[in-house]
Amino acid sequence: MTYPKTDLNKIRAGLKSKRTGRLLLKALSCVYWIIINIRKAFYRLGFFKTRSLSAPVICFGNISTGGTGKTSTVAAVALELKQSGKKPAILMRGYKRTAPAKTLTELAGPGPFDPAEAGDEAFMLYNLVKAAGIPVMVCADRFKAGESAINNHGCDILLMDDGLQHFALRRDLDVILINATAPFHKDFLLPFGDLRESAMALKRAGAVIISHCEHASPGGLEELSAQIKKINPGAAVIASAHEPAFFINASTTETLAPKVFAGREAVALSGIGDPESFEGTLRDLKITLKQTWRYPDHHNFTRDEFTALENTSGGNSVITTYKDFSRFPPGWRELFTNGIYLLSVKIIFLRGDYSVLMNTVNSVLARKSGTN
Fold this sequence. Notes:
Helix content: 25-40%
CATH topology of the largest domain: Rossmann fold
Structural class: alpha/beta
Radius of gyration: 21 Å
Strand content: 15-25%
Number of strands: 13
Shape: globular
CATH architecture of the largest domain: 3-Layer(aba) Sandwich
CATH class of the largest domain: Alpha Beta
Largest sheet: 13 strands, mixed
CATH superfamily of the largest domain: P-loop containing nucleotide triphosphate hydrolases
Order of helices and strands: HHEHEEHHEHEEEHEEEHEHEHEH
């Protein structure tokens, strides 16, 4: 049993069920294609300004909607750079934050910080890198955020999380992530499909990461790699997977082994871009999902929704994501009697591809510094 679905997905599914609806969506996709290409042309011709920063900028982004594991990948690269002696900062827009879009919120130091002011993804990312002292700069104006990171925090490399379509800031490297379970060559532009840009955007990439390989067949990965190389022969193609690390008891913060729920029933709760992969990971852990509650990406949960979840969960524990936990309503602990747990995952790179990614990043640093 799965509920509730997003209203937009319901509308699109309803339109696709009819010929006239499909024609309407395809027409809107054509309009969308025209708009995004006019916008790109305005930047290319100088009608819209693109600014540069003194530190190298590396962008991690998608050509499609939905989750690809950008945030975890950015955290891994930032931590590696920090360990190598660099001073990275992470730039984010802060989607669905309560603060005005162009107000700069700096997640740096011990805090405390308001998760709502920065946005759930930014707060989650901050928690992943705060022990290393890596600042997370949240602002729709990525130039402003980067300038503050350089001037106020002494940062010498900037990682932009989800900025592939943000042409106002010049980048030294674009890294594009593609979900192996939602391959671009079988998709269409919004709103008929889920592509933000056409596949030709891959030409801008210095590296392409195929994520969620744990849910793909070897044949499917080979086909996807071939499609990427066909468009951009020079891009490094890197394979990654999400691996369960542990569960966290949300009430007590106790950590539990990934296999603790094996053979048991549970309820999955998520408001993320790729709920299928999250639920697939739970099933791979031999958990029987009696219900799957899916909300729109970045959804702010309400007490009424949690009350409904408790009343219909059948006494089963609820499993959600760390990202969703930052959007729980006040007083959520009093609403659950059967326990709620957070799945913590880690990114692993296949075939030794992590060294390929870091070599690509380091080559950019060498070019920028003039040592290569």
